[in-house]
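Researcher: Go.
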Amino acid sequence: MERVDTRRVECLDGLRGLAALWVLIGHTMILTGFRLPLVSKPDLGVDLFILLSGFLMVFQYQLRAGREDWNAPATWAAFWTRRFFRLAPLFYLTLAVALIAGPAIYESRVAIDSFLGQQLQPRERYADSSFVNVAAHVSFVFGLLPGYAFRSPLPDWSLGLEMQFYALFPFLVLLARRAGWIGAALIAGGAGAAAALAATAAGLDYPMPSFLPLKLHLFLCGMLIAADLGLGRRVWLHLAAAMLLAAIPIGGDQDALHLVVRELLVLGFFALVHLRRLSAIDGVARLLGSRPFYWLGELSYGTYLIHLLILQPVAAAVIGRFGTGLGAIERFALTGAIVVPVTYGLAYLTYRLVELPGQRLGKAVIRRATGSSTRSRQTVPEELAAP
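Model: Structure:
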């Protein structure tokens, strides 16, 4: 196997952009009554994000390994600070908008569900501005609490999940140093599955898989694909372990379609990273790293957080204006034609005005805390924000 470029994995840009677009289109289909196989399953787009997030954390760890001591708590603090300032600024902004607009968005959702004959959502799912709910979200602990894990108009359950993964990541690194990446992944995956089963046995009912043990195995799949990057034949052992972990039937829908697609996501991502010597795969990887896909990736976090704030009122307005005068495919097309450009326009504005300043602030906080100078600027690729 040829050596992989360990400074950049260009397909990441396009894949995270496509993951966000998958979620947007899938939700648009659900809220307009139009369905296509796979595309109307936005949870699979989130699974792709999770896979990429696990990969990127190990990828970044390896790039920094020569200048960071992961036995030192200061390194953990810097890691957690980077991740906080990557996710929190835009999340806090959209959370404030969502809580203010929550009652109106709920009315839109009632109109949509009533028209489509779907079960109505509980009002508190959209309109709970209580101190406890706000505090749980601001502190990112909401994903651990079944009653608050899915309690805002945002698709933010996965952000609480991400923060749990970031909290655990330094300990996974230390475990991997002792047991190797495959051993660490299998140990952590087994422990996660056991914790998930124990939570179910204890009567903890998560409306979305926001509890880390329910999705840890998918993070671990991405970590394994990154762990032997460029080091030769051992990647096949990592692939086998990743395929085994991806088959664990926990964390969301467990029908045959979902399990097969998750395995295919692991295989496809592995191929894009490790089989670039094949011309067809290399061509796809280059396309995913091209400028349009780069921007699709850069705007993916904003797209993910913002789209439901736009989509639900627009879908309700289309239904209210045209009712049964439009078929499902026409409702989907008209709603998408409005929602997609508005969402990406707002994602671009918030990328420039919120995300980038937030990242710069995080780096400044780390420099001040460590006493490092501006000469130690970031030399690794920009970090992924996964939903």
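Model: Residues 1-5, 373-382 have pLDDT under 50 and may be disordered.
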